Amino acid sequence: MSKAIIALHQVHKYYLKGVHALQDVNLSIEEGQWTAMMGPSGSGKTTLLNLLDGLDRPSLGRIEILGIDTSRFSADNWTVFRRENIGLVFQQFYLIPYLTALENVMLAQYYHSMADKRQAQKSLEEIGLGARMHHFPSELSGGEQQRVCIARALINEPKIILADEPTGNLDEDNEKIVMDIFHKLDAERKTVLMVTHNPNLGRLADRRIYLEHGRVKHEHWV
Amino acid sequence: MFWRILFDSVVRRKKRKTLAVLAVWLGISLIVGLGVLCLDTGDKMNLELRSFGANIKVRSISSSIPVTVAGYELDSFKDANVLSENDFPKLKEIFWRNNITGIVPRLWVEGTMKGTIDGKKIPVLGLWLSRKIPVGQGEECATGASHVYKHWKLEGRWPKEDEAACLAGSELAENYKIEIGDRLEISASKNSMLFTVSGIISSGGREDSAVLASLRLVQGLAGLEGKVSEADISALTTPENQLAEKYRVEPKSLTPAEYERWYCTPYPENIAREIQETIPNSTARVIRRISETQGTVLTRIQGLVFFLGLITFVSCSLSLIGILASIVSDRRSEIALFQAIGAGRAHIGALFFTEIAFLGILGGILGGLTGSWIGRQLIQAIFSSEASPHFALILLSPLLGLMVAWLGSLWPVRRALNQDTARALHES
What we know:
Number of helices of chain B: 14
Number of strands of chain B: 16
Structural class of chain A: alpha/beta
Radius of gyration of chain B: 33 Å
Number of domains of chain B: 2
Distance between the termini of chain B: 24 Å
CATH class of chain A: Alpha Beta
Shape of chain A: globular
Strand content of chain B: 15-25%
Order of helices and strands of chain B: HHEHEEEEEEEHEEHEEEHEEHHHEHHHHH
Oligomer: heterodimer
Strand content of chain A: 25-35%
Radius of gyration of chain A: 17 Å
Strand order of the largest sheet of chain A: 6-7-8-3-9-10
Shape of chain B: elongated
Distance between the termini of chain A: 15 Å
Number of helices of chain A: 7
CATH superfamily of chain A: P-loop containing nucleotide triphosphate hydrolases
Number of strands of chain A: 10
Structural class of chain B: alpha+beta
Helix content of chain B: 40-55%
Largest interface: A-B, 28 and 25 residues
């Protein structure tokens, strides 16, 4: 049995005005597992993802990632931990508009250690953007922007990839391209935790976790 | 990559950046303008206050000691004429020669005026009216009463040096109905002479009850050739400060560095001391009234200007807070993304502070140039003279701009660095 790379212990998340976004979540995700987090809007999927990437903090409970208790991490600790270990894929891509596709990928390298143009070029070529690497985000289609976002998330070879609705803003063709990329990541035994509404994408994952009203309702293992 | 992001940050959102530069520009212009005014006020005020007369009085040692016998103070000027007129030009050769702008040796004698009731004695004052002292390299320095006593009220004109003319003090003229153009026969211990009244003078002092004439003529009347009883010296001085006070209280308490600074500063006491050493048998005293007024006025003006400069500095920083807060706020999502992909607070802080430093330095350079111009205009308007060039202030202005900009950016940047990253990303 693979070891748990992410472990949540009695995690709660409250927001102002009495919103209880996550309630007593206990979860363990194993290394090399592709997990899809599913559920209706407002079920707490994105909140959970934000707790795992350190952009938000749990109100109660403990989160261990790579065997490290993150509950006492400062913002600076989280920044270092995130850039060393976690790759983020966003629904809205969040590319820097005044940097080219290549520069957007190199930016993640720069914050991690140092920019390596050749490596960044290679990563874009691998996802079929070799001819578009010098284009600005505004000159790319949604699918191409998402692929740049994925390339940026993968460039530093993170141990965990967290993806928030990676196909949420894509048409069918681009959705298929992105799904293929995630398939490839799964084949490489990368640990992927993905929030999605898309049942087609969810079905591809090794494990599906259904959230409802901030609780784990049920799980499905492949 | 840092410079790539920085370049794009600087060239985008031009309107707000222009506003930020404009705010720094205006602020630094005022600060530099006030700085020029502050630095020049000392010298200009000195020159202005020189028009209120002398600030150092030189007397013979014997006359400076009051002698009282049986309750009566002995008239000092009877035996006080021991200073030599020839010693006074030497004052333009001493260490502080450039600070000494006016010298008026004076000789008081008792005389009588023909036609006065009972032959009552009147004071007669001989003084340098308008002299030129050689100061080396063929140059001369104009001095004398007409240069130093500009604050005296004169009806008529100053007599010329060798002219048999005199000025009548206002009280004397009133008492004896003397008018300009009258001829007065003045007698002293040795000779008598006929003078034409060229003007009526009002000084507010002893001179108002005297007849004033050329020193040489008065010396001839009294048979005191080459002698004077006192002198008024006008000198450019630095108002006394804590260092001067420290020396006065306990000279030995000064460190060697402080002593050197004190020695090379034209404090009134310093100049008076050297005058005293140059003129034999003399004692030189600072006329406190002018010296202290000058110091007080200068200190107050400089304090006011410093206060205004400080207020400008703070208000400029406050106005920048608003502009920079909106610039930073516009980029919340970008900052959140930087943080999400691994940028540390130090990196983001460095990015913003460098960008803001560029805006501040640009505003500072522009402010230094216009502030210098404003300062010159202020000096021209207030003192009707040219301001000295203050290159140090112009060179310092980019640094001032940088400080203003950084001060104004502290709060917005700190707020951006501590923002809720997840929320900022979500809202974008």
